[in-house]
C-alpha cells in the first residue's frame, strides 16, 4: 500500500534503519521507519486519507507518524531533494537523497534501505558496507567525525554492540575513546546522556552494556565514585530474579525494570553523589525523588528490620506497611535485590503478596452512621483500623 501511494504520487519510498537491519538479522522489529524522497508529510497525508489512518505531523522536521486503526505505527521522514534541483548540483548517484539521508546515521548497520515502490520494489540498497558489517558483527561509524558530531553515539554504540552480540570495530573504538578523552561528551546536554542511559537500562539484560561502559571509562565519566565492583554482577542478577518474581505475582501493576537496574548501579554512591548525578543528567523530579529520598528510605527501613530482629521484637505488619507503602515498587524490588538478609526478604515479600492489598473496609458513610461528624478524625480512624487489620487484631468487618 505504501508503495502504491508513492507510485501514484511519483515519489520513491524506502524502509530504512533498524527495521531493515533486524530483518536481515532475522529479529523481530515492529518499529517501521520509512523515508520518502520528497515531501514525507504530503505522502503520509495522502496515505492516511486513502487507508483510514490517523496522522501526527512534525512540520519542523518534515516527519509524520501514521497510526493504523490497530495502533500499529509507521514513522515517515523526508529525504530532502531540493538541494539537487539546481542545475549543475545534480548528483550522479542514483537515489542521492536517500543516500545522503543514510549517511547522517550513526552506524553502518543502520544504513540499509529497501525500496518499496515501482519496479525496484524489494531491492536492498547498501551504500556503506552494512551487509559486510552485519556479517562481521561489527559496529562501525560512517566517518571519523561521527562521535564528535554527536557524542550520544558513544552510548548507542555500546547498546547495539551488547544487544546484538557484536563488537565495536577497532578504529571505531579508537574514535570513541578519543572523543571521550577530548571531552566531547561534556558538550551535549545532560538530558541527552540520560535519555541514552535509559535506553541502555531498558534493554532486557543491561548488565553486559554496563560492564562495557565501565571498560570504556564511561561510568567514571558519569561519576568518579561510580566504580563497578565485583558484587555488581551479583546485584544485577538478584535484581533480575526480583523482577521475575514480581512479574509472576501478576499484580496488574507494571514495574519499570530499568529503574530497578539503575538503582543497582547507584548502590555504592552516597546520597550527595546521587543527588549531584541526578542534577547533572537533568533527571525528571519524580525520578530524582525515587533515586534520592525513596532509595534512602528503603535503606533505612531495611536496616531497621535487620536491627529490630537482632535486638528487639520483629516489626509488626502495620509498621512494615508504613515503611514500604510510600515507596515505588521499583525501589522495593531494588531493596530486595540488595538485601541478603532473610528477615528483610521475608518482610518485603509479605508486603507484596499480602500487606499491600489489605484495606480498612470502611468508608466515610459507615463512620457517619455511627454519629461521628466528618473531620480530620476520619483519617485517624481509617489509619487505626487499617493497622488493626494488618496486625490481625481485627478480622471481621
Ligand atoms: P531500536 O531497536 O533500539 O529502536 P533503532 O535502530 O530503530 O533501534 P532508533 O533509536 O529508533 O534506533 O533510531 C532509528 C534510526 O535513526 C536508527 O536506525 C539510526 O539510523 C538513526 N539514529 C537514531 N539516533 C541517531 C543518532 N544519534 N545519530 C545518527 N543516527 C541516529
UniProtKB/TrEMBL annotation:
Out of the domains of life, which is the source? Bacteria
GO annotation terms (biological process): tRNA processing
Keywords attached to this Swiss-Prot or TrEMBL record, sorted alphabetically, are:
CBS domain, Magnesium, Metal-binding, Nucleotide-binding, Nucleotidyltransferase, RNA-binding, Transferase, tRNA processing, tRNA-binding
**Molecular function via GO:** metal ion binding; nucleotide binding; nucleotidyltransferase activity; tRNA binding
Q: Which residues cross the membrane?
A: none
Which family does the entry's similarity section mention?
Belongs to the tRNA nucleotidyltransferase/poly(A) polymerase family.
What is this protein identified as? Polya polymerase
Protein species of origin: Syntrophotalea acetylenivorans
Give the organism's phylogenetic lineage. Answer: Bacteria, Pseudomonadati, Thermodesulfobacteriota, Desulfuromonadia, Desulfuromonadales
Q: Which residues of the full protein are shown?
A: 470 to 866 of 885
